[in-house]
Amino acid sequence: MSAQPLRGFTLIEILIVITIIGILVVALLGALNPLEQIRKGADADRVNDLRQYHIALENYSNVNNGLYPVSASIVALRNLCNVGSPPPLRAYMSGCPTDAQNTHKYISDGSGTTYVFWGKLSAKGAGFWTVCANGKSGKVTSEPTSVNCPLP
Asked: 3-state secondary structure string, the chain?
């Protein structure tokens, strides 16, 4: 009778399997984070709302001699829905989008010839989606503080 060799796993094999399982778990947790997916969905809704406001402001301007609603200080964007020369801004949209967290802001120059408005994004690492009267829109890292377009 010859002695049979012991069968089993070596320490190296066990460590390799544990490492592979750990990498897979980390990758899956990052991809399946439901809260982050919800935030990204909410951000898409915010950007869509801001695009609706942009279209409405441009239509408003076309009817009002190229002028936008005047607000020389920062105001909530939803406050513009009922202002302006007849018809008010809300007439150029199918209802004013609501901003439950009140993060959509607007400012114009004193004459109503230019504006900047924005909304805070909530996804990880997000900043503010900004729209300028010159047609530029995009993400910026800090909240605008004046009517000067922060987009390059």
From this structure: CCCCCCCCCCHHHHHHHHHHHHHHHHHHHHHCCHHHHHHHHHHHHHHHHHHHHHHHHHHHHHHCCCCCCCCCCCEEHHHHHHCCCCCCHHHHCCCCCCCCCCCCEEEECCCCCCEEEEEECCCCCCCEEEEECCCCEEEECCCCCCCCCCCC
CATH topology of domain 38-140: Pantoate--beta-alanine Ligase; Chain: A,domain 2 (3.30.1300)
- pLDDT tens-digit series, residues 68-123: 999 889 998 888 888 776 688 888 888 788 777 778 999 999 999 999 999 998 87
